[in-house]
Amino acid sequence: MIANAVTNDDTLRKARVFVSSTFRDMHNERDAINSIVFPFLRAQCAIRYIDFTGIDFRWGITEEQSREGQTVGICLSEVKRCNFFIGILGERYGWVPDPEYTKEYPKLFESEISVTEAEMEYGVFSRAPGESEAIFCLRDKSLSDAFGFAECDDSVKLKALKNRIRAGKSAYPLIDSYSSIEELCDFLKTHLLDAILAKFPPVRALNKYETEKQAQSFFINRLKADYCGRIKQLEKLNALAEKGGKPLLVTSKAGCGKSALLAQWVKQYQERHKDDFVFAHFTDATSESGDWEFLIRRLFMELSEFTATDFDIPLEKGELLSFTQKALSSVSDKKIVIVIDGLDGLSTDPMYGIAWLPQRLPAHVRLIVSAKGKTAKMLDDRDYGRLTILPLSAKEQILMADTYLDGLGKKLGEAEKSNITKRLCATPLFLKTLLSELCLFGDYDKLNVRINYYLKANSVTDLFRFVIERLEGEYADESCPNLVRDFLTTVICTRKGISEDELMAITDAPAISFFPLLYALKAYLITREGLIQLASKPFAQAVQRRYLTDKKIAEGIRKKIVKYFENSPDRLRSIDETTWQYYKMNQWTLLYKTLSSTDALLLSKQSGVLFKKYWASIEAKRALRRNIAYKALCESPDCETQTLILLAEFLLETGYYADAIKALENALKRDKDSQEAYGLLGRARNAMGDVAGAADAYYMKLEICTQTRNRLESARTLGNLGTLEYERHNKKAALDNFEKAKEECASLGFLHGKQAALGNIGKIYFEIGKAKEAKQNWSEQLILCRESGNLSGESSALGNLGVLYLYEGNADFADKLFSLQEAITKRTGNLKELEEVCGLRAVLETERGSYEKAEDLLFRQLHISREIVDYKGECAALENLLRLYKLIERPEDAISMGNDLADLHEKHNDEHGKAKAWLYLAQLYCEAGLEEEASGFLISAIKSAANNDYDDLYDMSLEIENKYFSEA
Q1: Paired residues of 654 in beta bridges
Q2: What is the reported pTM?
Q3: pLDDT of 4 above 80
Q4: Which of the residues 19, 410, 702, 909 has the least number of beta carbons within 10 Å of its own beta carbon?
Q5: Nearest alpha carbon to residue 790 among 829, 824, 836
Q6: Do residues 591 and 583 make contact, with C-beta atoms less than 8 angstroms apart?
Q7: For residues 58 and 28, is the Cβ–Cβ distance under 8 A?
Q8: Residue 290, SS3?
Q9: How far apart are the C-alpha atoms of 500 and 517, rounded to whole Å?
């Protein structure tokens, strides 16, 4: 059978390094090894899938063990567990134990040697070649003098031991008479890394998916080392995997250990069920792990290998959605277990969100995911089961502490463990952070003082503050006194993270200072797509509280970031970062200037929601407008077609239709076959009430798409044509087009097209009195929009559902939906959507009898519609004002709105709209007793309805005629 997706063997590729030296005189060396050498080696090993552990025995033997004479045995047993050995000697020979402490090793200690020499004998000299890789370091006497340890406790034995080391230098690297800590560290980093890489050569990978598989396996093996207890949770996971059931969502508060639990379960389950296909994906594992498309392709490549099935994996991203469902269903003879840790950590894809994850899974597929925040809420909406990971019990805390410290060859006494478990260590993140900090501490006599110092922390964030303070003391020098501050604040202040080179340049740190800190911080950092970010929210909060409460520090860092990126050759990256900094610093004029550039429009495509948010903020704070900023660009004879299309799409999406049309007409002068331009032109013209012009544009686009066999854009155009049929009041033809568009978009994985079709289908069903079907379509649209991050679609669905609930008499729930819709429009800065919200809220306030509020909202709607030249929005606002004034018996105002409405329809040559406005006026004049004025409007409306087959208006005109003019 072909190997499973999760590597079983976690015993290989482990580098355990034992540091042997005397203690009292070697604190400087051991401190440097722990703070500089070990972090460097750990980082270098990790990228090669080697698990590195450094063993420093300055503490870790309890008082109980010491009293019982176990010290020597513990030291030597730890030497035996290690496959790499560092021996360091200065001017001290070390402690020679009494015979009563060495009974287990009579031959080794028959010459009454020190424990240090015994470690060297046991770990190096008596071992077979290749069994242990050794490095020796002999300190120069001048450095011992400087440290105050020049006196020798046994010069004869020390000299003999040093001579023995020198005599064997051909068998291992030796630095003789190092005169500085820096020299020692450089030597150890170089030669120990060489020795590790010689023992563990690079792992061969055929492609990036094989590389990811190895990285995931390495990550899982490291994570499961942090697991402890939680038997009931493991049983629940086993029950789902073995018996089936709905997918399971694993959640917890930050730092409670859900990733470690999943890693442990994955390993245990795979070992017991070797015939099942187990696929585990942890989004924090690598820089590539946050890409959902990469995840799906890796899943099927590994499933193909496991089952010997040749999957035809589509090249197009959209087609992966339907393929995933079908491909999983096709392998029905194998149980498939999929575990995704950190679903919320996948990169935000504005087209797909989490919609790529199938809604329904075949019976033989088990799905377990962990997520938090909005993503967890989405999975709740899918009715996933929930498994909540609770904090550690006191017993589990002790188990975790013992397990973690055992890996480092250390133990805590019962008093220390009791002290720890009485505090905040129920969170694994807190406990692990505390223990790792203690392991860096070298003074055993003051260990309890150190424990109490850390236990002053009231939260994980508080504990991280102590970590940061320690780092400040260890990683600062004259050239970089604020290196830790500048490093961490630069990372946290950037929008999506920062590369190593960028970070080093902004902090202005020399490599000799920068990289030791980088390696020391690896546990608190994560890299996504080559950019460094802070790995956890609590650590980020600690950085903010430590440094960024001071506005001067925050602004100083942001200005440094701007200065660096202003000169970056990567123009898009530069704009992305500088605009973020201007936004955070409230520099609205500079933000306006940057966004007004041609290059900045690329950002509108890459980060559309944020781009709109920037403009919404600028316009709220300054008398600056996006359409004015881009006016010259819209009409520029030199602007490229694609730039004009990007500009037009942005202006169209934010309600500036007339300006969008100018840009598109300019684009079509350069490229008369641009289907993109015709599609946007159709939308813009339709938005302004030019139905005939919109139809011409859409049919031109459809012709081009048919010729080029562009199914995706053809499907989009079907939806657009459905909208036109709706505008022409041909609901049956519109519904047919929308249904076809929905099916085609679904088959292509074009989620935004499917969402728009669902919204339009719901709208027609609602208007023909099928509220149940309308609710079904809008509810599906809402879920799909939320899962794919389509804020505009989500806003539309919320508004439509709000109207439906208002229609059903549930005004309070409608109000909640309208509030959610309004919050989205403020985030996106979409004036068209804000205009619609005003109209919907006005209807709600009218239903509640709050007529003044309704009037204010409708005038706000009217103002926005005129500002963005939205003909339909202006019509809706005037019509609603007319109805409101009629309701509250203000006939003169109602007639005024009717005349304005008729004039607006006349201006746009909208025959149906004019006829409808005339009927409104006829009815209003009749109600005012002015039949003569009413008759003229009624006759004009009847003629228009009859000539244009407006059946709805014709029936309405007959009702008015029968009611007011029947006697005549």
Answers
A1: none
A2: 0.77
A3: no
A4: 909
A5: 824
A6: yes
A7: no
A8: coil
A9: 12
Residue 50, Cβ density class (10 Å: 0-12 exposed, 13-18 middle, ≥19 buried) = buried
Nearest-angstrom CA–CA distance, 634 and 638: 10
**548 pLDDT tier (thresholds 50, 70, 90):** very high
The C-alpha atoms of residue 208 and residue 214 are separated, in whole angstroms, by 10
Q: How many CA atoms lie within 13 A of 923 on its CB side?
A: 19
Write out the two tokens for 494. Answer: 């950037």
What is the residue whose two structure tokens read 């020098």?
Answer: 477
3-class DSSP state of 525:
strand
Centre a 10 Å sphere on the Cβ of residue 643 and count the other Cβ atoms it contains: 18
SS3 498: strand
Pair 136, 191: CB distance under 8 Å: no
Which residues, 6 or more positions from 56, have their beta carbon under 8 angstroms from its beta carbon?
19, 30, 33, 34, 439, 442
Sorting pLDDT into bands at 50, 70 and 90, what band is 968?
A: very low
> CA–CA separation, 86 vs 188, rounded Å?
9
Q: Is the pLDDT of residue 16 over 60?
A: yes
- Cα(386)–Cα(266) distance, rounded to whole angstroms? 18
* pLDDT tens by residue, 744-795: 888 887 888 899 999 999 999 999 999 999 999 999 999 888 888 788 889 9
DSSP letter at 523 equals G
Question: CA–CA separation, 137 vs 178, rounded Å?
Answer: 7
Contact 658, 688 (CB under 8 A): yes
Q: Please answer whether residues 72 and 101 qualify as being in contact, where contact means their C-beta atoms are separated by less than 8 angstroms.
A: yes
SS3 89: strand
Question: Which amino acid is residue 448, in one-letter code?
Answer: N
3-state DSSP call for residue 174? strand
**Cα 654–660–663 angle (5° rounding)?**
145
